[in-house]
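Posting for a labmate who doesn't have an account.
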Amino acid sequence: MVSDKVSYIGFTCSYTPLALIEAAGYTPYRILPVGDSPDQAGQILHDNLCPHVKRVLDRALSNDLPELDGVVLLNSCDAMRRLADAWKKARPADRIILIGLPMTTDDSAVAYFERELSRLVDTLGQWSGRAVSIETVRASIKKYNQLAVLFESVRNRFVGRGIIGGAVRLQGLYNMAVTRPFSEAYQTIKGFIDDLNSPIAEDTGIPIFLFGNVLPDPEAFGLFESCGVRIVDEDLCTGSRSFAQIEMDGERKIFSQLARGLLRRPRCARTLIPMTPGAIAGEVLSRATACRARGVIACTAKFCDPYIARIPGVREALRKAGLPMLHIEGDCTMRSFGQHRTRIEAFTEMLRR
């Protein structure tokens, strides 16, 4: 169990406004579905439910978390709503808030999310015992934008020439940045960038674009590499999707700008463009082409309905473009992920021919 004097607020979704949590005097702590907590969530939740949610609940039931001053959950899907219900049963003394997350990005969705963000700030202020000023929020957004710029520099180098430690190291940096105080994360990433000019060994693995929902364990990326894969770019909610700049013009309402920026960052499968609901297929193809991948691996959690619904369209778009795709599902444990080794090796061997 982690223990220190930092005041943590737990969260689980890459759409969570980290800047608002930091502005209220807290450190955002993403409850990643990692670790060796025993399977206990089945005592409260149905077995055929998102393993991301169940692994998060397993950590809560096992007290495999730092001391939390509260938990912010986003109403992103039915499984997350069930997590909010289960959390209250498992840890009734915890303060928890469920924030609505629109499925679209139009003006009405932005207006709704703006009100939800305002409600979140009021709640965080009540928890901390101090009001959160607009100036503090603006300053916090600026800080996280600076962190996003640093990560963009790292990702650009990762896509273009590679970095020391490869995808394993990059995922470790992402995990650190969503679980440690901002100042520590910023200095760590900045120090890493200062060393980017160090020479790295040539990687002869097959270049692959990776996309999906949750894949936070750096060991999983090590498994890819051991199978002859070289991840040249990714789009994961536990990866680059967590850090994107929020455009600020200094004129519009601060919560409106934040709501718009969060909703329009790289999307997961549950966020739709109403007129083009299958747009994610084109987005995956565009990203895979841009990084010159020779194949695509879709890595998703079992029972994730949004991704189950989108995968066929993505596969077809890639097929037409001549890009092979491998889809693997897991339960957010390396035990499950390791079972796919043979399939990953076969996919890699096929691409070598």
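Reply:
Got it, the structure tokens are right above this. The mean pLDDT is 93.
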